[in-house]
Structure formats: structure tokens, C-alpha cells
Specification:
Elements lengths: L3 E3 L1 H8 L5 H15 L3 E4 H14 L6 H14 L1 E3 L3 H14 L3 H12 L4 E3 L3 H4 L6 E3 L3
Parallel strand pairs: 1-2, 1-4, 2-3, 4-5
Length: about 140
């Protein structure tokens, strides 16, 4: 079964009901992929998700609710960590492709774990990485 890394933006859309169609699509996509045991997240996604819900969403989402989401992700998804070697590879990707550092870090983490598909709204951020299949579920 193909594993897919779900980018932070999809997690945020799935969690925050802003009344948009993106919320429903992201939630349906995430639940389907979790049911199919396909979702992979980087610890980076968990960190970014926390920061966005606690600092960027107004009003901020309660920390207990954020922690419930995190616990749910960790119980239902494979969580990937990274090392200093991953960061070194991310720096090389960043230089080679001109991608944002944190996008490069996600790609480097994915490569180390043989994950070749990402679900994101930000297709353009990953288009230079030809070994990556980019899916926009929104």
C-alpha cells in the first residue's frame, strides 16, 4: 500500500471548520487515508500544526484541543522523525532546487523513509522535485 505524507495545510484545514469547502474536503481526505492506513506525518508537521493553531489562527485554538488532535494523529498515523543528516540533505535540496528550507526538510525526511507522495494545497512548492508525486485533495 502506498504511503502518503499529508502536509500541514491539509491537517489545519481538516481541523478548523471555517465554513469553507476546503474544510470538508480535507477532513474527508484525511479520514479516508487514515482508514486505509496510508497517512504518514513528519514530526515537523506536528510542530507546524501546533504553531499555526496556537499562534496564527485567531482566536487561538485551546491548547487542550490542539493536544487532542496531536494525540489522534500520533495514534492513527505513522510519525517520521529526522536527524542532523536529514537537515544536511535538506540544505542540499534547498540549494539545488531553491525550495523553501522547511519544504526541503519534508522532502528529505520523505526520501529517507521511501515516501514518494505528498498531499498538499501548495503544489507549486514541490513541483521542482521530480521524484515526488504531488496530490492536491482540495
Amino acid at each position: 500500500m502506498t504511503k502518503i505524507l499529508v502536509d500541514t495545510n491539509i491537517l489545519v484545514y481538516a481541523a478548523i471548520d471555517d465554513g469553507s469547502n476546503k474544510h470538508n474536503k480535507a477532513k474527508e481526505f484525511l479520514l479516508q487515508k487514515i482508514t486505509e492506513n496510508q497517512v504518514v506525518l513528519s514530526i515537523q508537521n506536528i510542530v507546524e500544526f501546533s504553531r499555526i493553531l496556537r499562534e496564527k489562527i485567531k482566536p487561538a485554538v485551546d491548547s487542550n484541543l490542539v493536544n487532542q488532535y496531536i494525540s489522534g494523529f500520533c495514534s492513527n498515523c505513522e510519525i517520521l522523525s529526522y536527524s542532523h543528516e536529514t537537515v544536511i540533505k535538506a540544505n542540499l535540496l534547498n540549494t539545488a532546487f531553491g525550495t523553501h528550507f522547511f519544504d526541503s526538510l519534508l522532502v528529505s525526511t520523505m526520501q529517507e523513509n521511501n515516501i514518494f507522495e505528498i498531499a498538499t494545497e501548495n503544489e507549486k512548492d514541490f513541483e521542482k522535485i521530480k521524484t515526488l508525486k504531488v496530490l492536491n485533495p482540495l
